[in-house]
C-alpha cells in the first residue's frame, strides 16, 4: 500500500534550542502501513515503545497534543 497524505500540521513551542526564542515546525504527515515483524526501531533515544489503538492514544495523558492531532479525523 502506498503512503497516504494526511495533511499539513503546524507546531508552535514557546521554547526552543536557543534561549527565549520560540520555535515553529511545519510537518507533512503521511499514513504508512508497516510490517511489525520487519520493524527495527532505534533505541539510542527511545527504548519504551508502545502500540496504542487510536482511542487509547487520544485518551492518553502521555501522548503530546500535537501527536494526537495526526489521529483526529
Structure description:
With about 70 residues, the protein is α+β, with helices and mostly antiparallel strands. The chain has one domain. It contains two helices and two strands. The model has no long low-confidence stretch (mean pLDDT about 85).
Mean pLDDT: 87
Number of helical segments? 2
The fraction of residues assigned to DSSP E strands is: 25-35%
Number of domains: 1
Binned, the helix content reads 10-25%
Number of strands: 2
Ranges where pLDDT stays below 50 over 5 or more residues in a row are none
Which sequence of SSEs, written as H and E, runs from N to C? EEHH
What is the topological layout?
Elements: E1 4-13, E2 23-31, H1 54-59, H2 65-69
Keywords:
73 residues
In short:
This protein is of the alpha+beta class and 73 residues long. Helix content is 15%, strand content 26%. The radius of gyration is 15 Å and the shape is globular.
Amino acid at each position: 500500500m502506498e503512503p497516504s497524505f494526511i495533511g499539513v500540521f503546524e507546531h508552535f513551542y514557546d521554547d526552543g534550542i536557543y534561549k527565549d526564542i520560540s520555535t515553529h515546525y511545519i510537518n507533512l504527515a503521511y499514513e504508512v502501513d508497516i510490517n511489525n515483524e520487519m520493524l527495527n526501531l532505534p533505541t539510542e533515544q527511545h527504548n519504551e515503545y508502545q502500540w496504542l489503538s487510536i482511542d487509547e492514544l487520544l485518551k492518553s495523558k502521555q501522548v503530546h497534543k500535537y501527536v494526537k492531532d495526526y489521529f483526529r479525523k
